[in-house]
Amino acid sequence: MIATPTIPLEAATPAHICPFDQACSYLEAAGKELRLDQGVLEILSHPRKVVTVSIPVKLDNGEVRVLAGHRVQHSNILGPYKGGIRYHPAVTLREVSALAMLMTWKCALLGIPYGGAKGGIAIDPQQYSVGELERITRRYTSELIKDIGPSLDIPAPDMGTSAREMAWMMDTYSVNVGHAVPGVVTGKPLSVGGSLGREKATGRGTMIIVREALADQGRTLAGVRVVIQGFGNVGGAAAELLHQAGAKVIAVSTGTGGVYAADGLDIPALKAYAAENRHHLAGFPNATVITNAELLTLPCDVLIPAALENQITEDNVHQIQAQIIAEAANGPVTLEANRVLEAQGVTVLPDILANAGGVVVSYLEWVQGLSYLFWDEERVNREMEHLMVQAYRQVMQQSKVRQVPLRLAAYTLGVGRVAQALSDRGLYP
Ligand SMILES: NC(=O)C1=CN([C@@H]2O[C@H](COP(=O)(O)OP(=O)(O)OC[C@H]3O[C@@H](n4cnc5c(N)ncnc54)[C@H](O)[C@@H]3O)[C@@H](O)[C@H]2O)C=CC1
Ligand SMILES: O=C(O)CCC(=O)C(=O)O
């Protein structure tokens, strides 16, 4: 049993669905399967560094508010810490710690030379003006100035942040150190050294993994019924690319609910509608309004949760009708629900594989920046696809050889590589 982690359990997080406890349970299962030394597991179950900073911000109405900003650096055994920055009201230190740990295994699984980190601020970005968000982001970056850097810790977008916030972070960091440092963040706008293909990379990666899983079942994307929860950076791109590839995207949702059409939604038109209606999908022509709870239990071939953690739980898992679940979000299926799905033979494509396209193109962006040589989008997509398909095949092979479900197969690969590096570096006797 792994020792109780040092991150305090916030009252708001019920222990049985605490993302950090769940992440530690998966680590423990991988350690058991790999027969890892207890000391190694003990090291890997603790984040290397946890930073919480106060972010004072003057709102447009003159009120001063002090926000808490977290950055958790889980591991830098394989390279610089890497992972997104989340702005969402449900952000907690334990959530960020779990997401940081997932980043470590994800980067190791994909074979990219990074460790894992994640950051977050518990705010609803919709409730702040652009000016307020800029002040919050700049102050957060200044407070982290000694903890981030292009060879130390490289943030990227996650829920509630985008290329815009990355440009502010890059600028604040650069002004503080006295020269332009594009490599301090990825997911930047093209104008400051971003990469073609990064914006849709996570959704594209999910589409590739779904395509490969279907191919293994002798099927193609054509006509496959897909349901997607979340219509933001990841869910929106996945919907668009799957629609383009001939899949029938029958339902999608945002935080305020979703829409359903049995014959498939016109995704480009829905994207335009969502942009015009502040992400409310209700009222989209020729579609039925559904709740997020209803969306998850629709009959479909592929379900893609692309929003928050803990969406498929012991409460709704028995109603899930999808044959394949591709975790575009991080941690959308709870530990208990995962057990049920595995027992029922549902193919669960785990987050550290299914949503890795984003960090892969972040890596390609970082490499292009460091070499001062930028590629066309076709090359970026090709390199990403190569790494995604390679990781997919390794996971399938590991699953077959070890006779374990896909999640445990992915974890054994990711955790095993980090443990090996830990030993080779002599960090553990
Ligand atoms: N942006 C990236 O490159 C990557 C993101 N991810 C993961 O993908 C997930 C989504 O991230 P993004 O698309 O970047 O965020 P986003 O902020 O661009 O979009 C989030 C979407 O989820 C919806 N949403 C929020 N709360 C919801 C709820 N309670 N029920 C249903 N929908 C809800 C929002 O309305 C929005 O459509 C997160 O779990 C994130 O960690 C994973 C890898 C990379
Ligand atoms: O692109 C990145 O560096 C990180 C993306 C991320 O936060 C994630 O994969 O969960």
Description:
One of its GO terms (molecular function) is glutamate dehydrogenase (NAD+) activity. Belongs to the Glu/Leu/Phe/Val dehydrogenases family. NAD(+) binds at residues 202, 233. With 429 residues, this protein is α/β, with parallel strands linked by helices. Among the domains are: 47-180, Leucine Dehydrogenase, chain A, domain 1 (Rossmann fold, 3-Layer(aba) Sandwich), CATH 3.40.50; 201-345, NAD(P)-binding Rossmann-like Domain (Rossmann fold, 3-Layer(aba) Sandwich). The protein has helices spanning 19-34, 38-44, 93-110, 130-143, 163-177, 201-216, 233-244, 267-276, 292-296, 335-344, 351-354, 357-370, 377-402, 406-424, and strands at 49-58, 64-75, 81-87, 116-121, 153-157, 225-229, 248-254, 257-260, 288-290, 302-305, 324-326, 347-349. The strands form two sheets. Strands 9-8-7-6-10-11-12 form a seven-stranded mixed sheet, sandwiched between helices. The chain has a five-stranded mixed sheet with strand order 1-2-4-3-5. Helix 1 (19-34) runs parallel beside helix 3 (93-110), helix 6 crosses helix 7 and helix 6 crosses helix 13 (377-402). It is globular and about 55 Å long. It starts with 18 loop residues before the first helix and ends in a 5-residue tail after the last helix. The mean pLDDT is 95.
